[in-house]
Write a structure and sequence with these properties.
The structure holds two protein chains of two kinds.
Chain A lengths: L5 E10 L6 E11 L4 E6 L5 H8 L6 E7 L2 E2 L8 H4 E4 L3 H4 L6 H11 L5 H11 L16 H13 L5 E5 L7 H18 L2 E5 L3 H7 L2 E6 L2 E7 H5 L6 H9 L14
Parallel strand pairs in A: 3-8, 3-9, 6-7, 7-8
Antiparallel strand pairs in A: 1-2, 1-4, 4-5, 9-10
Chain B lengths: L5 E14 L2 E14 L2 E6 L5 H8 L8 E3 L2 E4 L2 E2 L5 H7 L4 E4 L3 H4 L6 H13 L3 H14 L5 H5 L8 H13 L5 E5 L7 H18 L2 E5 L3 H7 L2 E6 L2 E7 L9 H8 L19 H4 L8
Parallel strand pairs in B: 3-9, 3-10, 7-8, 8-9
Antiparallel strand pairs in B: 1-2, 1-4, 1-5, 5-6, 10-11
Helix pairs in contact in B: 4-5, 5-7
The chains are: A alpha/beta, B alpha/beta.
The structure holds adenosine-5'-triphosphate (2 copies) and magnesium ion (2 copies).
The site of one magnesium ion has 4 residues of chain A, from helix 1.
């Protein structure tokens, strides 16, 4: 079957009202096949998170088309939608309730959807993301940044969704945990045939995780390339070239022509 | 650091948290110094990097406890300072960009107001001057539409913008030492380079000291002068940043191996195999 798992067509997202409207996303279109992994990269403020938030139903003020398995999504979502799609947020500080224990954070989605077997599932989820049961009754402020992001990944997996929207899932993680989380995400994708839409600014991560990559700038997709094209450093757009160069590390000569 | 002036000297620093499951030792007896240079602190999540940074400003929240033989800044022991003297140090002489930028901004005040108030507090400038300075700083950290962002609330800016706003705010008082905790982790690489170039310039032109906390080994090795590698609350190794790829400790080597590489695809990334003896090894002293 050729039907994409996720399809976005001519998506526009606006903020503000009246004469003070700001368009954060401008005619963005892409398709992700079932079991596929699609990457969105691009400069800060280019609208990557906003695309994810519109797809996941967190933003209502958009137009265009968003389809999951051929079914058109309305801005407002039913509860059942969240068993199909979950999002891991960029900012693990803001996304975990500060006064809830890890146990409560992980059990809550199960309660909301009437799923039993809570204790077993919570312990399994903690184990899946490399946190032991010692973390079960901690509060977010008692965790390091990376530990919080692992809790956020665990929470997204509680409802066993088919699509994961991953917003910089490892930007708060150190490389060894990043390797663990990326391996975990790869394994889960293979085992459960999950579909990923992943935002990251790390080209090495996107090359490792995704088959196809869209580059965003000022709310628009400016270039789409396969991972092979990226590895061969064959981008067409100047911005993508700059991105590839900058990802090789800090180089004081990089801005030689520019007044910093 | 030999012929340079030492800005900061930390000796035998410990940070402990009592928890339900006993005492967590977040930092276990580390010693290091920082001159007018760029010192990177790397290490895995939970290794104690942020707590080390916060300790310098005595910002460990109770019930956490911090102890040290010495935390001296330009020769003065900060441990002897009153809370009032510390307030003067924070944000004036030593600034810290926290790992959780949006968390540290006031959610009900516009970004611009927060920056200009910070500047007024420090300089006593007029409202108009403070606003001009704030817009200038937003531009310096590569915010594209400074006017719009100036009037935005923290929840209305993107992750990377939040980080740059914090950096702008911390640089305004012209600190002698900047502690930057994962300051660029949410930035795309091109903006990241520009923000690093700003910090680089402050170190070179004004002799600022920089403690750069990051988990990005490649970035630290290309950007910093020296690197301190932390594991389990201790320093396991320290070296010149340019020599990081020749690191000897198996932990550091493991971190390097775990990095995905654009031009060297692998089905699985190497995962660190932690040896329990690492936790018991003595902390390496990193004065220079
Ligand atoms: N709630 C909001 N109200 C007003 N403007 C917003 C809001 N959320 C986002 N924006 C604006 O939309 C633009 C895109 O933001 P978005 O968070 O999608 O960027 P991003 O590509 O994810 O950037 P980053 O890499 O820094 O996270 C930014 O200019 C931001 O200021
Ligand atoms: N309030 C607290 N109570 C108990 N333990 C804590 C508390 N705050 C921090 N810790 C623990 O202290 C250790 C060091 O934390 P720290 O935030 O310094 O890590 P880090 O190296 O900055 O990690 P990351 O890269 O994830 O930010 C962690 O194991 C963390 O769980
Ligand atoms: Mg974002
Ligand atoms: Mg930290």
């Amino acid at each position: 079957m050729n039907q994409p798992m996720l399809e976005v067509a001519n998506l526009n997202v606006y903020f503000g009202e009246g004469g003070d409207i700001f368009q954060a996303v401008d005619s963005v279109s892409f398709k992700v096949k079932k079991g596929g992994s699609y990457g969105l990269v691009g400069e800060s403020g280019s609208g990557k998170s906003t695309v994810l938030r519109a797809i996941s139903g967190l933003i209502a003020d958009w137009d265009g088309r968003i389809c999951v398995e051929g079914e058109v999504l309305e801005p407002k979502r039913e509860k059942a939608f969240y068993r199909k799609m979950q999002m891991v947020f960029q900012d693990p500080y803001a996304s975990l309730h500060p006064r809830h224990t890890v146990d409560r954070i992980l059990s809550e989605p199960l309660g909301l959807h009437g799923i039993g077997d809570v204790e077993t599932r919570v312990l399994k989820a903690l184990d899946d993301v490399g946190l032991g049961k010692a973390f079960r009754f901690r509060y977010p402020h008692q965790l390091s940044g990376g530990q919080r992001q692992r809790v956020a990944v665990a929470r997204a997996l509680m409802l066993e969704p088919q699509i994961l929207l991953l917003d910089e899932p490892t930007s708060a993680l150190d490389v060894s945990v990043q390797a663990e989380v990326l391996n975990l995400l790869s394994d889960l994708r293979t085992e459960r045939n999950l579909t990923y839409l992943m935002v990251t600014h790390d080209l090495a991560v996107v090359a490792h995780m995704c088959e196809e990559i869209a580059v965003m700038s000022h709310g628009k997709v400016v270039e789409v390339m396969s991972v092979e094209q990226m590895r061969r450093s064959e981008p067409k757009e100047a911005y993508t070239r700059e991105l590839l160069m900058a990802s090789k590390g800090y180089d004081p000569e990089f801005f030689a022509g520019e007044a910093v | 650091m030999s012929e340079q002036e030492t800005l900061l000297r930390v000796e035998d620093l410990w940070v402990r948290f009592p928890t339900r499951n006993g005492i967590v030792e977040a930092v276990r007896g580390i010693s290091f110094a920082v001159g007018r240079e760029r010192v990177g602190i790397v290490g895995e999540s939970g290794s104690g990097k942020s707590m080390t940074g916060r300790s310098i400003l005595r910002l460990i929240r109770p019930p956490g406890q911090m102890t040290a033989k010495e935390i001296s800044f330009k020769g003065d022991n900060l441990l002897d300072y009153s809370e009032r003297q510390m307030r003067d140090v924070r944000g004036h002489k030593i600034s810290m960009v926290m790992q959780d930028p949006k968390f540290s901004l006031n959610p009900v005040m516009t970004v611009g107001k927060q920056i200009s108030e910070a500047y007024r507090l420090h300089s006593g400038a007029s409202r108009g001057d403070a606003k001009r300075k704030a817009l200038e700083m937003l531009e310096a950290v590569q915010i594209r539409e400074p006017e719009r962002v100036y009037n935005s609330y923290p929840h209305e800016v993107s992750g990377g913008m939040g980080q740059r706003i914090m950096i702008a705010m911390m640089l305004i008082p012209d600190p002698d030492l900047l502690i930057a905790d994962e300051p660029t982790s949410a930035l795309d690489v091109t903006v990241q380079m520009r923000v690093l170039a700003i910090m680089d310039k402050l170190v070179k032109d004004r002799g600022m000291g920089l403690i750069f906390i990051s988990h990005d080994l490649q970035l630290v090795s290309s950007f910093c002068d020296r690197v301190i590698i932390m594991y389990g609350g201790k320093i396991v190794e320290t070296c010149k940043a340019s020599e990081l790829h020749n690191a000897k400790h198996p932990y550091t080597r493991g971190l390097l191996a775990a990095l995905p590489q654009i031009d060297d695809p692998k089905a699985k990334l190497a995962v660190l195999d932690r040896d329990p003896v690492w936790r018991d090894q003595e902390s390496v002293v990193a004065y220079d």
